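Intended use. Records like the one below are meant for learning the mapping from a protein sequence to its folded structure. Do not use them to infer anything beyond what is encoded.
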Amino acid sequence: MSGFGEYTRPPPPPGPLEYGGVKLVNDADHPFIAPGPGDIRGPCPALNTLANHGYISRNGIESPSNIVHAAMEGFNMNNDLAKFTCYAAFVVNGNLVTDLVSIGEKSAKTGPDPLDQPATIGGLNTHNVFEGDSSMTRADFYDGGDVETFNETLFQGFLEYSYRFGGGRYNLTAAGEYRYKRTQDGIETNPTFTIVAPRLFSAYSESVNPINLWVDGRQDDGQLRLDHARSFFEAARFPDDFHRAARPMSADNEAVVLSIHPIEPGANIAGVNTYTVDRNAPKLNDKCGIFEYHVNHTLRTLYPNPTGDLLDAIRANIHYFYTSVQARGCSEIFPYGRFEDGESNAYYAFPDYPEVELPEYGTFPYPPVEPLTYTDAPAPASAPAPVSTNVAPPAASATVPVTSTD
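Structure written out for the chain above:
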């Protein structure tokens, strides 16, 4: 529902686009308009861009099904990835009864909080339920609590690593090195640093989405221009004449980024440099495990005993979340019980999606590339070499040091 009247079950997310190819998205129907007083923006530059161009509500309050459609229409994000990302965030940050979420700070515009539940309906700014540490261009929550403001110092690191490892473009090689650096920054400076599901997924998705979604579809080479990177990260604005990706894009090339410097999920447990691997947390390639962990651990912590309309909305949204991993062969789980249609379970029928028209050209995923010979500007000073992850834990802690398999 889009208002606060009588409850109706939230609608399912849309299926794939009927046309999944290159398309002008910075068009006359979607002009850039900077946010005005009262408009909300948050830690995700992609969502901020969609709001600034009117693909989602410009006030920053939107329903998950509309966000899924906007991510596909504006960026050509793969349908399953759009659903996985959106519903993973929505079920822990949004108002499940009103079917609304703030893309940034908590807002009364999403409706009243649930009674007698720990959930705060805090919007996407809420730390450590989806938003998390080691962002590429936003500070950690530990460093003052501001997780939504563009950080020029971090962006300069992004540029430095793009020059050093990408030859003046941001690509998978640069992504692997910079993700590793930001993880090490967290381990060494943030005593509360953690990177387990769902942040493990969103951190690596954040690393590859600029390559997959912000490279103009007519270019289609996995090499992000740095002026375009600044336009998205800082201004939340499509570059002039920007065309979306050449085909629906997944984030499966996150495995390439992880392989450059492998790391297992974990956290600092006793201050800085005490990173301990969490053996119970799912790894990045285990999307079924991430889905189950997020529902059975994070969501159930926020909603231990829902009833009535809230219970019905939770059941519906868990299913919508599940459809994002159904094609991977994951099992559906029912921690809050099934819908009232019983054993037939007709409500869970897989949607009859239309065929997707895909272009013939291009390949995906892009492999790591050798540093290119061209640059957009004189290269800045070289970044310091990445710090080894062989950190010796304090004697009193049973930590497992992070090791690189390079």
